[in-house]
Specification:
- The chain is α/β, with parallel strands linked by helices.
- Helix content is 40%, strand content 13%.
- It contains 13 helices and twelve strands.
- It has an eight-stranded mixed β-sheet with strand order 3-2-1-4-5-6-7-8, sandwiched between helices. A four-stranded parallel β-sheet has the order 10-9-11-12, sandwiched between helices.
- The longest helix is centred in the middle third of the chain and has 31 residues.
- The protein starts with a strand and ends in a 10-residue tail after the last strand.
- The structure holds nicotinamide-adenine-dinucleotide.
- Nicotinamide-adenine-dinucleotide binds next to loops.
Length: 391
């Protein structure tokens, strides 16, 4: 059993990891600067949708699991995991200093013998920089980079099923990281730090590119008057190589876009496929608004419902959701937009029944399960294909 503190612990990555570690009997403290999230966690509530999280709380809360805004536990922890955000700036450059700043702010409070684990998704080389920064106050500090590869909302289940990539600044750091993660992950895969950092970015950029090719095909076919889904369903039918051909859709969220841009910055901004994927994915909201306009005529003064405002289905996370860009595009066309989402509160978001009653036209923002069986009688645009005719 290890004493573990997770810095940024009440966030989307920190909380499932903390619960998973507590479930296998580690002593876990979530350190977070968000007092509201800390309060919720200590009351046994998850501040966002995370399958399986609330079931773990009763067996660990106030026993070997708690949240706090105080850094006191850093002095006595065996392992300190950093998982704060790593955004890109308005010019799509990685804000590397954010994560260094966070680590510096805690440097004089940590147990010098602890293993420091970086779990945020970072620009390649950042683990080495952090290792140098911490060495200024703690010589021989053990630092590891162990990326998170969960899909948001299903983190608890995935942590126990996905292999864990680990890397470290010394064999001792790698050994300690392996000891910790082998208590939750079925398999450990070792890489050098920069390889592990690039591996995580490549995983997200690959997914972003998958969406981009589908989005490009959608726009290519539909703009030529062809029915994308008639072609898509036909080409996938009994054809194993197209099994993983993803559907088109608004693709952004807090990770895929910014991690593709981090990888691009790493390659001196010459990641042409990544840059092209951005142009395609970011262009889809405009295309969808134009598609609806082609069906309905001028949208000025019309009520247009967007069904689904979050960045992914069956989740409450709106970070970097392109549905908000779609709303802006429709507003520029002078439509009256009814942004609706069952996971987001009224009155800012219009309840589904009201949105459907008032709407002159509908666009699917994200395919929540709640929409799958709707019978829409008004003009609509559904790039996700949830209402397409199936055999
Ligand atoms: N969301 C995902 O599914 C996912 C998956 C894999 C990797 N990642 C990566 O993990 C990192 C975190 O992402 P997230 O989605 O969990 O972000 P998040 O915003 O949900 O969580 C970050 C948490 O850090 C806290 N925080 C910020 N500054 C702090 C400080 N100085 N001290 C203590 N706490 C602080 C915030 O209050 C927040 O609760 C990012 O690098 C992201 O790219 C995310």
């Amino acid at each position: 059993m290890k004493k573990v503190t997770i810095v940024g612990g009440c966030g989307h990555v920190g909380l499932p990891l903390g619960l998973a570690l507590a479930k296998v009997a580690h002593d876990v403290t979530l350190l977070d600067i968000n007092p509201k999230a800390v309060e919720m966690v200590n009351a046994g509530k998850v501040p966002f949708i995370e399958e399986g999280a609330e079931e773990i709380f009763p067996s660990v809360l106030n026993k070997n699991f708690r949240a706090t805004t105080s850094p006191d536990s850093l002095k006595t922890s065996d392992v300190i995991i950093f998982v704060t955000g790593t955004p890109v700036d308005e010019h799509h450059n990685p804000k590397v200093h954010d994560v260094i700043k966070v680590m510096r702010s805690y440097a004089d409070k940590i147990n010098p013998k602890a293993l420091i684990v970086l779990r945020s998704t970072v620009y390649p080389g950042v683990m080495d920089v952090l290792s140098d920064v911490l060495s200024e106050t703690i010589p021989d500090i053990k630092v590891a980079f162990c990326p998170e590869r969960i899909v948001q909302g299903k983190g608890i289940e995935e942590i126990f099923h996905l292999p864990q990539i680990i890397s470290g600044n010394s064999p001792a750091a790698e050994k300690m990281a392996e000891e910790l993660f082998s208590t939750i992950a079925p398999k450990i895969i070792r890489l050098a730090p920069k390889e592990a950092e690039v591996a995580k970015l490549m995983a997200n950029a690959w997914r972003y590119l998958e969406f981009a090719i589908s989005n490009q095909f959608y726009m290519m076919t539909e703009s030529q008057g062809l029915d994308f889904y008639k072609i898509y369903d036909a080409l996938r039918e009994d054809y194993p190589r197209a099994k993983h051909f993803t559907r088109p859709g608004l693709a952004a969220g807090p990770c895929l876009f910014k991690d593709t841009m981090q990888l691009s910055a790493f390659h001196k901004s010459n990641f042409f496929l990544g840059q092209s994927a951005m142009l395609v994915n970011e262009g889809l909201p405009v295309f969808l608004a134009d598609q609806l306009e082609a069906k309905m005529g001028d949208l000025k003064g019309k009520n247009i419902a967007i069904l689904g405002m979050t960045f992914k289905a069956n989740n409450d996370d709106i970070r970097e959701s392109l549905a908000f860009k779609l709303r802006k595009v429709l507003e520029i066309k002078r439509a009256h937009v009814l942004a609706s989402d069952p996971y987001l509160p009224a009155p800012e978001f219009t309840p589904l029944k009201e949105a459907l009653e008032k709407a002159d036209g509908v666009i699917v923002g994200v395919p929540h399960n709640e929409y799958l069986d709707l019978k829409i009688t008004k003009p609509y645009v559904d790039c996700w294909g949830i209402w397409r005719k199936r055999k």
